[in-house]
């Protein structure tokens, strides 16, 4: 691992009266959200969900319970999968094309899903390991007036100095990405390591956060929904960690809720080259890292971004087919993951691939696809790739993994879009760092947020208890006596 650091920008303090006024305004906003809900309760019947659920302004414990007829139909559909034949060579032997997953992989997943996969066992395991909840929020101050039902994992640490951390997943992941991080972050083995209260919400339309009923749920609107969730849970200030779409959502949290976000850690900090960078490259004045990044971003735009191009332009066209074929959806997801991990067939073996696909199959994939279309309207992405985002002022640390898009992004480039104070560059891991390199990701999160001064997380250290005053003990220039 190579670590790079930059000086931390000084952060202005907030006077106690200003802080109290800010806190009062936040509480008032939260109360307005609750008043706007008017006691609204949305159930799985109201929302036509494939699982049992209830959403209200209360924070309620949630247990995954998918409807049995839906599971039966899913297995039937998997068993009826129609396959595409592989191409053959001059001798008639199969040749695996680079156009997509080979037939042998499709057959393996379809057959396992139809005959071997046990969703109820997966469901039981997730319910036992992940404390899950639901609530209903509104986002005053945005153009999205509808109530937003949310599902989330929430695990508090026993440590009094624990830091509230919002974990932000991306596509085609889900809240499942937090499963290997939850225990080490909330319950570190050493008292010298920072502890966290972890909140891991499902983006609306992913997992068990129901799909939005109205258009407009992009990265920025999702950020507003998650900010409302954190206020609902009593976290007026917090940090976030995220990758993929989660990093975009977190960036908007920094921009739109600067008084709430203290600091951030991203494992997907992509900064495209400027025209000046391209001109320097043409003159052979760029560094090896700059050349590497520009070449990788160029290849991604040319051949790797096809899934993102259709999801941001014709998401409903794509969803029409993949809402009806569980194996087709699994292969769409697998193909997007294959290029960004070292051994995709091992990392996304049938059991995990199907479970990840279920997080999109259960709600239907349209909302997750259309997040790209709405994200395009937010200005974050286009058919040409990822765009530069506005500057975020909070202290930010980034982690780079060799199979991810932003690997080897120079620190001076990273600082163009945020107050990036450190960068950890690793020699293993890919786009799904929480899955294939959780030890490295946890270490980076601890190192940054554990540096209270650099990250600003001294804000979460509880004040020391008042001194115990006993008879005859001198305190400063005064002496206390008990009569």
Concise description?
With 483 residues, the chain is of the alpha/beta class. The chain has helices at 16-37, 44-47, 68-79, 103-115, 119-129, 182-186, 219-232, 245-256, 275-282, 288-304, 306-313, 315-322, 326-338, 344-347, 350-361, 366-377, 411-414, 433-436, 438-450, 452-455, and strands at 2-5, 42-43, 54-55, 60-62, 87-88, 94-95, 132-137, 148-155, 163-168, 196-201, 238-242, 261-266, 381-382, 385-386, 392-400, 418-425, 474-475, 478-479. The strands form five sheets. A ten-stranded mixed β-sheet has the order 1-16-15-12-11-9-10-8-7-4, sandwiched between helices.
Across the major sheet, the strand order is 1-16-15-12-11-9-10-8-7-4
The gyration radius over C-alpha positions equals 24 Å
Distance between the termini: 64 Å
Instruction: Give the low-confidence spans.
Output: 7-16, 474-483
Q: Assign the structural class, choosing from mainly alpha, mainly beta, alpha/beta, alpha+beta, or little secondary structure.
A: alpha/beta
For the biggest sheet, the summary is:
10 strands, mixed
Number of strands: 18
Q: What is the mean pLDDT?
A: 91
Portion of residues in beta strands equals: 15-25%
Helicity, as a percent range: 40-55%
Structure annotation, total helices: 20
Categorize the overall geometry.
Answer: globular
Give the topology, please.
Layout: E1 2-5, H1 16-37, E2 42-43, H2 44-47, E3 54-55, E4 60-62, H3 68-79, E5 87-88, E6 94-95, H4 103-115, H5 119-129, E7 132-137, E8 148-155, E9 163-168, H6 182-186, E10 196-201, H7 219-232, E11 238-242, H8 245-256, E12 261-266, H9 275-282, H10 288-304, H11 306-313, H12 315-322, H13 326-338, H14 344-347, H15 350-361, H16 366-377, E13 381-382, E14 385-386, E15 392-400, H17 411-414, E16 418-425, H18 433-436, H19 438-450, H20 452-455, E17 474-475, E18 478-479
Parallel strand pairs: 9-10, 9-11, 11-12, 12-15, 15-16
Antiparallel strand pairs: 1-16, 2-3, 4-7, 5-6, 7-8, 8-10, 13-14, 17-18
Helix pairs in contact: 3-4, 4-13, 4-15, 7-8, 11-16, 12-16, 13-15
């Amino acid at each position: 691992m190579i670590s790079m650091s930059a000086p931390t920008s000084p952060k202005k303090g907030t006077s106690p009266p200003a802080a109290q006024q800010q806190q009062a305004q936040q509480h008032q906003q939260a109360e307005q959200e609750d008043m706007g809900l008017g006691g609204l309760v949305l159930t799985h019947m109201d929302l036509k969900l494939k699982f049992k659920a209830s959403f209200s302004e209360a924070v309620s414990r949630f247990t995954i319970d998918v409807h049995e007829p839906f599971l039966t139909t899913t297995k039937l559909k998997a068993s009826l999968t129609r396959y595409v034949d592989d191409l053959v060579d001059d001798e008639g032997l199969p040749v695996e094309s680079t156009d997509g997953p080979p037939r042998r992989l499709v057959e393996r997943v379809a057959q396992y899903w139809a005959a071997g996969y046990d969703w109820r066992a997966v469901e039981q395991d997730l319910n036992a390991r992940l404390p899950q909840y639901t609530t209903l929020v509104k986002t005053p101050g945005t153009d999205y007036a509808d109530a937003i039902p949310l599902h989330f994992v929430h695990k508090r640490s026993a440590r009094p100095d624990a830091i509230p951390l919002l974990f932000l997943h991306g596509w085609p992941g889900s809240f499942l990405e937090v499963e290997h991080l939850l225990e080490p972050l909330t319950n570190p083995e050493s008292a010298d390591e920072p502890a966290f209260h972890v909140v891991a919400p499902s983006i609306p339309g992913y997992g068990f956060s129901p799909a939005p009923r109205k258009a407009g749920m992009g990265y920025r609107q999702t950020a507003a929904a998650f900010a409302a969730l954190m206020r609902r849970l009593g976290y007026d200030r917090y940090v976030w960690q995220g990758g993929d779409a989660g990093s975009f959502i977190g960036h908007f949290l920094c921009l739109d809720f600067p008084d709430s976000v203290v600091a951030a850690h991203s494992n997907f900090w992509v900064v495209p080259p400027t025209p000046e960078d391209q001109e320097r490259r043409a003159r052979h004045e760029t560094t090896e890292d700059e050349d590497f990044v520009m070449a990788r971003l160029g290849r991604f735009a040319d051949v790797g971004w096809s899934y993102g191009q259709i999801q941001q332009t014709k998401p409903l066209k794509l969803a029409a087919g993949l809402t009806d074929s569980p194996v087709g959806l699994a292969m769409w997801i697998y193909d997007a993951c294959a290029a960004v991990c070292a051994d995709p067939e091992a990392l996304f073996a049938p059991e995990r691939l199907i479970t990840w696909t279920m997080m999109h199959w259960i709600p239907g994939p349209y909302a997750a696809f259309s997040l790209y279309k709405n994200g395009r309207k937010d200005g974050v992405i286009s058919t040409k790739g990822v765009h530069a985002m506005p500057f975020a002022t909070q202290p930010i640390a980034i982690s780079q993994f060799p199979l991810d898009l932003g690997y080897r992004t120079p620190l001076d480039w990273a600082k163009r879009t945020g107050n990036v104070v450190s960068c950890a560059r690793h020699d293993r891991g890919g786009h799904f760092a929480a899955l294939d390199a959780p030890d490295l990701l946890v270490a980076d999160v601890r190192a940054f947020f554990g540096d209270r001064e650099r990250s600003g997380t001294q804000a979460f250290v509880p004040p020391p208890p008042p001194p115990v005053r006993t008879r005859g003990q001198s305190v400063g220039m005064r002496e206390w006596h008990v009569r």
